[in-house]
Amino acid sequence: MKRTHCIFSLLVLLAGLLYPCQNQAQSRVPDYLNTISNRADFDRMKGKPLSNNYNGIECIKVIYELRTDKIYYIESRKYTWHYSFVTSVLFDEDELDIFNKLNYGRDPGRKYILATFNYNTDTKNYFLQFAPPDDISDEMIDKLVAKVSQTFFLGNKFKILLNTTTLLRRKKELAAKHDVITGDDLFQKQSYQPVFKGKVTGILRFVDADSIRASVDYSRNILVIRGNSNQIPVCRGIITDRFQTPLSHICLLTANRKTPCAFKKGCYTNDSLRVWKGRAVELSVGENTIAIKPAAQVQPAGNTTTVKTELPYDTAVSLLADLKTLELKNKSAYGVKTCNLAELKRLERKTGKLKTPPDAFGIPFHYYAAHLRKYGIDTMIQGIVLSRKTNPNDSILDIQLKAIRKMITRSPIDTELLRQVNAMCLARFGHTKVRFRSSSNCEDGEQFNGAGLYTSVSGRVGDTAKSIEKAIKKVWASLWNTRAYKERDYFGMDHSRVLMAVLVHGAYDHELVNGVAITKNLYRNYEVGFVINMQKGEAEVVSPDENVISEQVISYMNSGSDFYNEPRSADWISYSSLSPGGSLLSKEELYQLTLQLENVKRYFYGLYHAWPKTDYKNFGMDVEFKMIETPEKKHVFIIKQARPYTN
Fold this sequence. Notes:
Elements: H1 2-27, E1 32-33, H2 39-45, E2 57-65, E3 70-74, H3 82-88, H4 96-103, E4 112-120, E5 125-129, H5 138-151, E6 159-162, H6 165-169, H7 171-177, E7 180-182, H8 183-188, E8 192-196, E9 198-208, E10 221-226, E11 237-240, H9 249-257, E12 261-264, H10 271-274, E13 280-285, E14 290-294, E15 321-322, H11 331-334, H12 336-351, E16 361-363, H13 365-374, H14 377-390, H15 394-410, H16 415-429, E17 434-440, E18 457-459, H17 468-477, H18 482-490, E19 500-506, E20 513-518, E21 530-536, E22 551-555, H19 562-565, E23 570-574, H20 587-607, E24 621-629, E25 635-644
Parallel strand pairs: 5-6, 6-7, 9-10, 10-11, 11-12
Antiparallel strand pairs: 1-3, 2-3, 2-4, 4-5, 8-12, 9-13, 13-14, 15-16, 16-19, 17-18, 17-19, 20-21, 20-24, 21-22, 22-23, 24-25
């Protein structure tokens, strides 16, 4: 009896323990729904999109099983991939590569139509989206649209997103049958974008982009900026009223500095922000919004990293070097920019699969250092460094640095150097325009990119207004721009160790397209995908004029898999506002550019010995390119620069 009683008591206890678990199981979100009967159903099943191309997007994974004519609205927090659902819930036994081959193309054995059903919190619209590699037919789109219309509480009140190579090619036909939306529509209607998330305290200050001055101390301020500017000062945080592409100066600088930053539509005139003007506040930049509240104390901006930026230099080397003779290891004499272009030329000779500016050469640090010593400018610089320790006044600094720049540009250049440079330019470029570009030891490195800090100048042999001498000295002097000095200060660099070399190559006029690419997917932690921003002609990409938008595309054509290469996959976020009718590149041109970028990535991944510290998919190069037309009317890409992507 005693034993029976114990067993009974144990069963009762177990039942009591299990009962709450059963209730919890019943209240859990189901694996799927076959209908979305109301907004609450959508909210139960929604998750975050796999790609953050656009802000304010909520999504549900959708699977339409063709054999059974069933639609599954998937619990999208639990099943982030279609494949995980079909194997776990529908018990599909196909391996992943077979699943992809069958269900993202025109294979007659296709089992499913795969999509995401999205809601845009800015426009309050629903839309269907297909994966970039999906070569889906019009017939299958029709089937899915009909099925969603039958099972969605708003019926056919949703759109189809046309953003992929396959769908944009058939835009006219699809728009004739369905309500459609493009990436441009989504991009331009966004009201919020977290550029760099984080929390910071500062005094809220409203500034017009054109009024920002390098001589003003903004280090205790959170800036609310109207417009775009290359002159982004060191500050505590930034709220801007201009949407930013991932390769804009604001994005690069704030990510490099770890400065919280966000785009907020109408922020400059927003009354709820204006009430905090001039007050100490705490700014929080989150995924979907910013938050501001009072702060008791404000600290000046400063770099928190303990990693010191290396500033190698060698002033003994005096050879004006053809880039064919240089390697990355020569950076201590010629700067990283020059030596990275030299490595690009090595890749060009090795593979024949890309073009770089021909006949380029480098002027080493030697001549800059000699110029400073000859005219006592090095002593002036040391005086500034010492005086800043006791009197860190930005207005005084601006005056001191102007004096440095004036001494550099007004002091005659070494006659033998000038003779050599003129002779090389005449022999290589004749009397055409030549570009003189900064190649300091404090830019384009793995720890610090220095984007936009220094100056590139054009010169021409025999042109007194734009002489070779003036061009070289302007590049040298740009090392002592106030903004560049303060940026180096922020990162704790030793100003007495910074030097300027010069990269020289022919200039390109009338390019068809210019652009910047990052050889990793910034929108998705994915093995493939390059982010490419480009613009028509010579229009600015990283800091465009007001209301000018660059073309933004994620190219998946670098994959070796037929899953991506066969349909030549790409995902368009926006077209150029200067060419709104379509891409600046043909599909074949985008494919060729992507393959060249892949070659650059693979080469520099080995050159920088990134493995095992950085996995290949997470390694990125920041590449500048142009597309020109040859006299034979061929379109050719010129890779003009590559540096490690540090953000």
